[in-house]
Task: structure prediction
Amino acid sequence: QVQLVESGGGLVQAGGSLRLSCAASGRTFSTYAMGWFRQAPGKEHDFVAAINTIGGSTYVADSVKGRFTISRDNAKNTVYLQMNSLKPEDTAIYYCAAGSRSYYLTNPGAADYWGQGTQVTVSS
Result:
C-alpha cells in the first residue's frame, strides 16, 4: 500500500514558477514508476511527466517540454514537479500517481495509487 500526498500548489502569475512535491508513505516507493497528471474542469486526466523507478530517465508531455521537470528522491520518498514559465492553460488540479506495471507511468489507467491532488492556478 502506498499513500501519496501532494503539496506546493497555489496561485501564480503567468511566467512564474511553482514546485510541486508528492510525498509517499511505505518502504516500496523506489519500486514504483511515478507520474504527474493534471485535470482541468470538465476534462480527463492529462499526462504531464513521468519518471522511472530509480530516477535516471524522464519523459514529459509536449505541452510542457522545456518548462516542466520531474525528479525524485528515493531516500526521501518524494517526487517533484518543477514548473517554470507557467501559462494560464496550465491551470488544473495536479495529481501524482504511482504505477508498478510500466517503465513510464504515462497512462492514468495504469496507475496503482493516486494522491488527492493540488490546485494550480495561473493568472494572465
Summary: The chain has no helices and eleven strands. Residues 62 and 102 are 20 Å apart (CA to CA).
